[in-house]
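Severity: low
Component: inverse-folding endpoint
Summary: output formatting inconsistent between runs
Steps to reproduce: submit the following structure tokens with default settings.
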């Protein structure tokens, strides 16, 4: 069980039982997915039948599903829970508004979308959008606007800034994420095709990794070298967060990207203020 796009390109939790269905769940999706009661009911049936199941998602979703299974007194011995290191999620509505802007601009429906197109390498966000009319657009200011707001912590849900799962105490049997900073920790092992970070958090997780590690290229590191901020604390509020949401709720997505995204009227002032904040924090850290 994981997250894929539905026919309207909304992220949803769904069940994969074949390799083809599994592949539909591949790729990063920086949006809150929808999980239907029907999908949960199907998963419950599979658990009761004693099927082996892997469920992956953000830690809050994994914690919620585990709580539901506990409430229903389900035996989860054959269920493997995998949580991801999560930065936070924008709402499905903002994602829909963003797609609407793109589809109106290019006069065609989105049929393929990648947040992390690796033809340009693993590091950073490389957005690639394919439209029904055959047009492919990559890394323009407008196409990159959604992830730009995401990176600046402007579009995240309010609960993400108070997330209780941003620590090494994980709710999944296994935790996965990008191993950012590997080039500084181990330059020889680093490459630009992608290095994943994996933690085992339970006996079940350890047993699974031990079973498959002969098929992996891996190295072991101390957790002390891991620099992902969201393993230590929730994402902070973006600068002018309240102003961002006030404009979005009143005037819509196009209005906020025209102000806060690259090339927008507020862009240079926003990043000037951000640079000052970073400089002040560095000066404060030096004096402490």
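Observed output (run 2 of 3):
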């Amino acid at each position: 069980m994981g997250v894929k796009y539905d026919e309207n390109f909304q992220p949803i939790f769904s069940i994969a039982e074949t390799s083809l269905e599994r592949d539909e769940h591949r790729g990063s999706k920086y949006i809150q997915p929808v999980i239907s009661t029907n999908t949960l009911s199907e998963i419950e049936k599979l658990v009761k039948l004693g099927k082996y199941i892997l469920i992956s998602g953000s830690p809050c979703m994994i914690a919620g599903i585990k709580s539901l299974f506990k409430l229903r007194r389900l035996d989860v011995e054959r269920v493997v829970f995998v949580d991801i290191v999560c930065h936070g999620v924008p709402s499905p509505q903002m994602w829909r508004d963003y797609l609407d802007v793109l589809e109106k601009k290019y006069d065609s429906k989105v049929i393929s979308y990648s947040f992390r197109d690796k033809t340009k390498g693993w590091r950073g966000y490389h957005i690639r959008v394919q439209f029904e009319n055959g047009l492919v657009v990559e890394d323009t200011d407008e196409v990159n606007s959604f992830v730009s707001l995401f990176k600046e912590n402007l579009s995240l849900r309010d609960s993400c800034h108070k997330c209780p799962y941003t620590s090494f105490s994980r709710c999944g049997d296994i935790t996965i994420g990008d191993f950012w900073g590997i080039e500084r920790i181990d330059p020889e092992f680093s490459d630009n095709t992608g290095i994943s970070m994996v933690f085992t958090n339970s006996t079940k997780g350890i047993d699974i990794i031990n079973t498959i590690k002969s098929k992996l290229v891996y190295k072991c590191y101390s957790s002390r070298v891991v620099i992902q901020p969201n393993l230590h604390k929730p994402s902070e509020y973006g600068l002018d967060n309240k102003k961002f949401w006030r404009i979005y709720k009143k005037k819509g997505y196009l209005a906020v990207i025209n102000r806060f995204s690259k090339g927008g009227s507020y862009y240079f002032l926003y990043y000037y203020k951000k640079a000052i904040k970073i400089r002040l924090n560095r000066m404060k850290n030096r004096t402490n």
